[in-house]
Amino acid sequence: MKYSKLSVAFAGVLVASAASLDAMAVPITFTGSGTGPGGVPVAASAIFDIVGNNLTITLQNTSPSNSGQDVPGSTLTGLFWDFTGNPLLTPVSATVGAGSSILGACDLANCTGLTNVSGEFGYQATSFTGGADRGISSSGYLTSGISGNIGNFNNGLAGADLDKPASLNGINFGIISAASGFNPNGGLSKDPLIQDTVVFVLTGVNGLSITDISNVSFQYGTSLTELNVPGDPRDPPVLIAEPATLTLLGLGLLGLGAARRQKK
Q1: DSSP state of 71
Q2: Of 229, 253, 209, which Cα lies nearest the Cα of 42?
Q3: Where are the transmembrane segments (predicted)?
Q4: What angle (nearest 5°) sits at the alpha carbon of residue 218, between those of residues 216 and 86?
Q5: If we measure between CA atoms, which residue out of 60, 176, 74, 168 comes closest to residue 124?
Q6: Please, which residues bridge with residue 102 across strands?
Q7: At 56, is the secondary structure helix, strand, or coil?
Q8: What's the rounded Cα separation, in Å, for the pair 27 and 143?
Q9: By the 8 A CB rule, do 213 and 26 touch?
Q10: CA–CA distances in Å: residue 182 to residues 63, 68, 179, 211, 214
Q11: Which helix (H) or strand (E) holds 215?
């Protein structure tokens, strides 16, 4: 069977449109909740979003209230997850989220209004809790691969050190809830903390989708022996298309039909 050049061209448009439709995906949110030391309720969320070669993760401490005295063991310090296909990722940036802030003074910089915390968080691909094969952390249970174990969210290089010690260590820059009533004990009151949200960007996910993400969990405290809360997907992955993509797909179908009528 022979087809006209017009038919072949419109068929190409149709295939391209379908490919674009499959590539469009909405972000997926994982949430988890549990009980920290002293009966303090904890909760967190992580939004994963893939656009092209970039993965953006919005990590938030969503604890609804601060009850009792807050301690390092109830402070969110890390996120673990598994990626199908074991992609090689590069940590690009770590930024304090909009409306969030750094509480407490930093030893080496004026952290008031500062948003770039790339030197205070590390990324590592290895085996973690719950079957995860990679993680992000502000604490020393993760190794950044850089001398001194300094945070590597600076295109894979060492970021600026804002507070002693230089390495990923202790509870420094752990994430606390924005809920009222924050009552830090001695282990928290002297260290800079991030209230609410941190946004991470990594590259190297081209060809992957949010359906390739699993085994998400939230890590608290400064050791892997402390509280770890599994994350459940709150929003199922749903493929969507932009209006322009739908229009292109419609034109492709109309054109293919016209080409067939012309052949007859």
Answers
A1: -
A2: 229
A3: none
A4: 35
A5: 168
A6: 194
A7: strand
A8: 28
A9: no
A10: 11, 9, 7, 36, 32
A11: strand 213-220
Residue 214's pLDDT is 97
Closest-CA residue to 44 (of 260, 187, 217)? 217
Tokens encoding 108: 């080496």
Question: Which residue in 104, 37, 72, 95 sits closest to 171, CA to CA?
Answer: 72
Please report where in the chains the tokens 């940036």 appear, as a residue. 93
Give the span between the Cα atoms of 55 and 228, in whole angstroms. 23
> Using a CB cutoff of 8 Å and minimum separation of 24, what contacts does 243-250 make?
245/17, 245/20, 245/21, 245/24, 246/21, 248/13, 248/16, 248/17, 248/20, 249/14, 249/17, 249/18, 249/20, 249/21
- Dist. CA 144–CA 122, nearest whole Å: 5
Q: What does the pLDDT read at residue 20?
A: 45
Sheet-wide strand order for 90-96: 90-96, 197-203, 54-61, 41-51, 28-35, 232-233
Separation of alpha carbons 74 and 174, rounded Å: 10
Taking the chain (264 residues) in runs of 10, the rounded mean pLDDT of each run is: 49 45 72 90 96 98 78 94 95 97 92 95 96 97 95 97 92 93 83 96 96 97 96 68 52 57 57
Rounded to whole angstroms, how far apart are CA atoms 208 and 136? 19
DSSP annotation of 25: B
- Which amino acid would we find at residue 246? L
DSSP reduced 3-state for 7:
helix
Do residues 257 and 43 lie in contact, with contact meaning Cβ atoms separated by under 8 Å?
no
